Amino acid sequence: MIIGNNVLLKGKSSMNAFAGISIGDNCIIEKNVNINTYSSTNGYSPIVIGSGNILTTDINPGAILPNISETNGLSDFDGELLFVVSTGRSGSASISTLLSKHPDVKCSHEAFPHLHKWSCDLLSNTKTPDEMRYWLKALYNSITINDCKVYGQSDQKLVPFIQALSEIFPNSKFIWLTRNAVDFINSSYPRGWFDNTEFGYPINQNEYFTKNYQPSEFYSRFRFNGSLAGVVSEQVWKDMTAFERNCLYWSYWNKLIEDQLNNIEGSRWIKLKIEDLNGSENEVFDFLNLTSYASIKAQKTNVAKQKKISFSDWNESMISIYLKHCDYMMHRLNYD
User: Going by DSSP bridges, is the β-strand pair 38-39/8-9 parallel, antiparallel, or unpaired?
Assistant: First the structure.
């Protein structure tokens, strides 16, 4: 849940913020008002309550209430606005931590759960780009951004919205954070990403390794689905192992980033390998027009707690699948 400035909660209410609730500046929530992001018929859907609203009745999943009062949201932010995009498991938390060490920066990692549901809606064409722009504007402009020179967000779910965000915020900048596909897969695959259970499929007896971690139900529900996104047929997606889905996702997600960034002025974005982050701090600060500090260094965060696998654990079938999906993009990203 994100709560803006000067919000009054009068009590005796219940709030289910599972899919994301944003309450804008100067809102009043009267007594016994229930705000719920889940319904048994329509599932999870985020809620945005614009600034200045006075709520006297229950708010149902998916509600988007426009601003009633003025607020200084991101559209009025006069500093540098930054979005860090990646596949996840690629240092997005590390770069957020690095940037937040700078006295002139405020950067958050996975701040808005709303993006999980909305990214799936956009990729599956259940919502239009115009609807997404309206929702994104409502989300980012309902809460005042406190004084800082750079405000940043790092989140893999920003990726489908790169083009929209670049247009909504014409002065925004982007960092494309990449990671070697092998290292990404060795981290994401044993973590349970794209396991059959995430899509309601029977357990795949042909899986190469047994997952040793169970992602939360929320993350699993809004995992990228190659079939719904039109990348492969439903049957092909269903027949894949989780290993192959991870390979396909890494390649597809990076290509999605590349295609959108190529439509944006080159001065507004940089590409950075997470393997080179330690030592590239000055490059990042220069890109954001910030003073560099020798004492601010990158460090690993959000390190996987579950046991990883290594390339030496892969068999010939896994290597063949990896080459099929990732070889081209690995060369594009200069991981030779």
Answer: unpaired
Q: Which helix (H) or strand (E) holds 150?
A: strand 150-154
145 vs 257: CA distance, rounded Å:
26
SS3 265: coil
Q: Is the dihedral of CA 96, 64, 49, 67 positive or negative?
A: positive
* Cα separation, 157 vs 111, whole angstroms: 10
For residue range 184-221, list pLDDT tens digits in order: 999 999 999 999 999 999 999 999 998 888 888 888 99
Q: Which helix (DSSP H) or strand (DSSP E) does residue 269 occupy?
A: strand 269-273
Q: Give the C-alpha separation, 248 to 329, whole Å.
A: 11
- Whether 224 contacts 123, CB under 8 Å: yes
- Residue type for 33, please? V
pLDDT in tens, 248-287: 999 999 999 999 999 999 999 999 999 999 999 999 999 9
Give CA–CA dist 99/304, Å, rounded: 21
Task: Decide if 269 contacts 175 (C-beta within 8 A).
Answer: yes
- Global pTM value: 0.95
Reduced to 3 states (helix: H, G, I; strand: E, B; else coil), residue 324 is helix
What is the CA 170 to chain-centroid distance, rounded?
20
Q: How far is Cα 298 from Cα 305, in angstroms, rounded to an integer?
A: 20
Beta-bridged to residue 47, according to DSSP, are: 21
C-alpha 224/C-alpha 231 separation (Å) is 11
Question: How far apart (Å, rounded) are the C-alpha atoms in residues 17 and 198?
Answer: 21
What's the CA gap between 118 and 239, in Å, rounded? Answer: 26
Helices (H) and strands (E) in the chain, counts: 10, 16
127, exposed or middle or buried, with CB in 10 Å at 0-12, 13-18, 19+?
middle
Backbone angles phi, psi at 3, to 5 degrees: -120, 130
Q: Select from 172, 186, 208, 200 the least CA-distant residue to 81.
A: 172
CA atoms within 13 A on the CB side of 296: 22
Q: Is beta strand 38-39 parallel, antiparallel or unpaired with respect to 43-44?
A: antiparallel
Alpha-carbon distance 245 to 225, whole Å?
Answer: 9
Residues recorded for the chain: 336
